[in-house]
């Protein structure tokens, strides 16, 4: 009786120790390695050949109507994502890239045409430290290259490190997005981006990346910056979210705030602080 009880306790303690040795980074990476496949079934692709002729005739009949709907959809989508006809004559249409945010108190990243205060291109470089606790922390380095008034190439590298029972584990995430700045006012800047995100280490997988972001210039020298990027690796999501309060000093800034990372099954909530510069 006592021997059986001792064996049960021993097995439970060993399992508990093994589970505790798996940190958030390790669990997250393991979930990204798992390939989830689903059988769609061959019957779904089977079509009745006898009805193909009637379908084809219906398509021919509906083509003019479908063309009109497609044209309306494309026109509406262009207006929402790129620029609407009502914006053609607005000041935002010709907004230029400022030398740096808050060079003057009345504008941030964009300035309404002023030949003395805008750039054709601009580099924004940032580096920030993130920490969830004394065992899990890391660094995030980013470069944002603005060009052609509305576009930017955003490249960043996130490195996280975790200490679990004396064992060090790490996680790396690379992202590269082509961003379009959809709203470009002097006080508000909003963008969306498309590109690639790559998980390094022993996962070594790349996925299609999406991103959105806004920056609100509250009052010189304070702005609020939000961004969210995500991808899918083996049917598991990877998210990277920032909410930062920035303090601008000429072409430099210091910032602090909250960052959230979702790595497959693992979720990390971190405090962030760092510095940046615009050139």
How large a portion of the residues is in β-strands, by DSSP E? Answer: over 45%
Poorly predicted parts = 4-20, 37-42, 44-56
Protein structure class:
alpha+beta
The Rg value, from CA coordinates, equals 25 Å
What fraction, in percent, of the residue positions are helical?
Answer: 10-25%
- SSE arrangement, N to C: HHHEEEEEEEEEEEEE
Strand order of the largest sheet: 4-5-6-7-8-9-10-11-12-13
Q: Sheet bearing the most strands, described?
A: 10 strands, antiparallel, barrel
Global outline: flat
List the helices and strands and how they pair.
Elements: H1 2-20, H2 24-33, H3 52-81, E1 96-98, E2 110-111, E3 118-119, E4 122-133, E5 136-147, E6 151-164, E7 167-184, E8 188-199, E9 205-219, E10 222-233, E11 236-249, E12 252-263, E13 266-278
Antiparallel strand pairs: 1-2, 1-3, 4-5, 4-13, 5-6, 6-7, 7-8, 8-9, 9-10, 10-11, 11-12, 12-13
Give an overview in words.
The longest helix has 30 residues, at 52-81. The chain is α+β, with helices and mostly antiparallel strands and 279 residues long. The chain has helices spanning 2-20, 24-33, 52-81; strands at residues 96-98, 110-111, 118-119, 122-133, 136-147, 151-164, 167-184, 188-199, 205-219, 222-233, 236-249, 252-263, 266-278. It starts with a helix and ends with a strand. β12 and β13 form a beta hairpin. 21% of the residues lie in helices and 51% in strands. The strands form 2 sheets. Strands 4-5-6-7-8-9-10-11-12-13 form a 10-stranded antiparallel beta barrel. A 3-stranded antiparallel sheet has the order 2-1-3, with no helix packed on it. It is flat and about 60 Å long.
């Amino acid at each position: 009786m006592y021997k059986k009880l001792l064996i049960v306790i021993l097995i439970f303690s060993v399992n508990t120790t093994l589970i505790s040795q798996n940190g958030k980074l390790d669990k997250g990476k393991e979930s990204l390695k798992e390939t989830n496949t689903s059988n769609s079934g061959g019957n779904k692709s089977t079509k009745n050949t006898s009805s193909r002729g009637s379908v084809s005739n219906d398509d021919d009949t509906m083509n003019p109507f479908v063309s009109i709907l497609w044209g309306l959809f494309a026109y509406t989508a262009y207006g929402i994502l790129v620029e609407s006809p009502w914006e053609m004559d607005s000041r935002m249409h010709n907004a230029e890239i400022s030398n740096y945010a808050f060079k003057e108190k009345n504008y941030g990243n964009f300035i309404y045409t002023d030949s003395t205060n805008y750039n054709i291109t601009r580099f924004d470089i940032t580096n920030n430290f993130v920490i969830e606790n004394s065992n899990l922390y890391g660094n995030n380095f980013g470069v944002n290259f603005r060009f052609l008034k509305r576009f930017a190439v955003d490249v960043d590298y996130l490195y996280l490190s975790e200490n679990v029972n004396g064992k060090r584990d790490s996680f790396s995430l690379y992202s590269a997005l082509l961003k379009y700045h959809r709203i470009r006012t002097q006080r508000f800047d909003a963008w969306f981006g498309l590109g690639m995100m790559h998980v390094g280490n022993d996962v070594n997988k790349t996925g299609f990346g999406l991103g959105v972001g806004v920056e609100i210039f509250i009052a010189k020298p304070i702005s609020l910056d939000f961004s969210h990027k995500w991808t899918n690796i083996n049917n598991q999501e990877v998210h990277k979210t920032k909410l930062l309060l920035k303090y601008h000093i000429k072409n430099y800034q210091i910032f602090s705030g909250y960052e959230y990372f979702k790595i497959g099954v693992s979720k990390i909530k971190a405090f962030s602080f760092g510095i940046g510069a615009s050139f």
